[in-house]
Each structure stands twice: as structure tokens, then as C-alpha cells.
Amino acid sequence: MTELDLPAVERLLHTREIGRRITYLATTASTMDVARDEAVAAAPHGAVVFAEEQTAGRGRFGRRWVSPAGKNLYLTLILRPDVGRLRALSMVVPLAVCRAVEAVTPLRPVIKWPNDVLVGGRKLAGVLIEGESSGAELLYALAGIGLNVNDPVDDPEIAGIATSLSRELGEETPRETVLAALLNELEDAYSAPPGDLYSAWRSRIATLGQPVRLTFRDEVYEGTAEDVDDEGSLILRLTDGTSRPSRPARSPSAVSRRSEACR
Ligand code: BTN
User: Fold this and answer.
1) What is the CATH number of domain 6-202?
2) Is the peptide bond before 193 cis (omega within 30 degrees of 0)?
């Protein structure tokens, strides 16, 4: 396995905060758990936890995120936004993933609402956003990103639905280049004016006009994806002709409210 060359990543970074501290792990269960511990221990805004391999990588709705060693990017970014900016992360992160891929390859990824990044109809990257609040205060947010870079994607569990940069391009891309581009784009998108962020995110949504089926709590809604609003909600035109905004669903544990200080 070729380990990530962290100094090479640092040389390519032009950020002020994002990725200025990177915890590098050869293997871990999930970078989300390590990042949570680091956030509780006062890690600064923009700190990153990166792993070569995850033994219990997880996605939205508790799904497994296949995380073989040394091929892809598995990272969690620790952010300390105002509570009002938490929802914007659902736009910031997939947009930054798309722009990073566009910056280092000829590929043109699209977003499947709310925050999957697809190429050729297959999933290239997934985003998992979690937050921890105390009363009205957001203590921290975690943005987990899994981006398939040089993975042949031959795991039978995902071969039919996932892709990687190398599978699309027919050649490998240095992970350092992709990671640095991603961190640079994350900082740019995070600090973009809300209107610019929304229009750039909206222009990449491939879901619009498509039939969709959404599960919200115990209810299932079917209809057509009519639009997305500037808070990241999908406007669903139901089969009875009415419209309904639908917020990006979070996994049950995603945003928990604590009355006590953080763990
Ligand atoms: C999804 O598409 O359901 C989200 C996938 C998120 C995967 C990343 S990999 C790095 C971080 N650690 C995890 O356990 N999950 C996220």
C-alpha cells in the first residue's frame, strides 16, 4: 500500500483553516468517531481526520461504507459553524467534492439530492453530516466524506452502483492532488456568499425533474423532484399535484441535542 504523502498535500493547500491540522490514521473503525472525540477535545475549526482504511465506515441511514486500504479518501472535517449555517453544509460539501473532481480531472460529476456525488449514474462520493448541539448552541459539526479515487470497485456489494476516478478515467490519480483540491474547494465553498453557494449547488443537481421516492420518519412520499430551495430542501411535486418541501434526512443519531456540556 502506498501511504498518503501528507507533506505533498500541504504543499498544494491554499487554505487558511481547512486541513491545516490533519490527523493521519493507517486504520480506524470510522473517522467520524475519531473526529467526534477530537471535536470534544477542542480541535479547531477545519481540523481533518484522515484514514487509509476504515473497518466500520458508515454512511447515511446506518449503511456500511466500503473502505479498503490505500485506494480512496476517507476523511471527516470538524467544523464550528453558527447553528444557522448547519444546513448549508449539505450544499457546501457535495459542491466542493464536485469542484475538486472538476479541478483535477476532465470528469463532470453531478449531485443526487441531497448530497451523493455521481459520475455516469454511479456513486463516486458520499457525504455524511452530523452535528452536536447543546440547547440552541451548535457545539460542532462533522462532515464525513468518502471519495473513491483509485479503487477498482470490484467489491460485489457496490460494483453495480459505485464508481471511482480510476474506473472512469482508466488511470490512477494521485490521492494527494485530489485531497488538496478537496480541502481547497471546501474552504472556498464554506466561505462563499449564500446566494452563490445555492446557485452553484443547484446547477449540479441531477435529481430535478426525476421521479423520486422519499422516506420521512415512517412516511413514504412519491412524486417528481420539482426544485430545491436555498435551504437545501427538495420541493417534491406529489402524485396528487400538491408540493411539499423535504429537508435532507439525517441519520437518527445525526443531530443530537444535549442539555449538558459535551462528552
Ligand atoms: C453516504 O453516502 O451514505 C455517506 C458516506 C460517508 C462515508 C464517509 S468515509 C469517511 C467518513 N467516515 C465514515 O465512517 N463515514 C464517512
Assistant:
1) 3.30.930.10
2) no
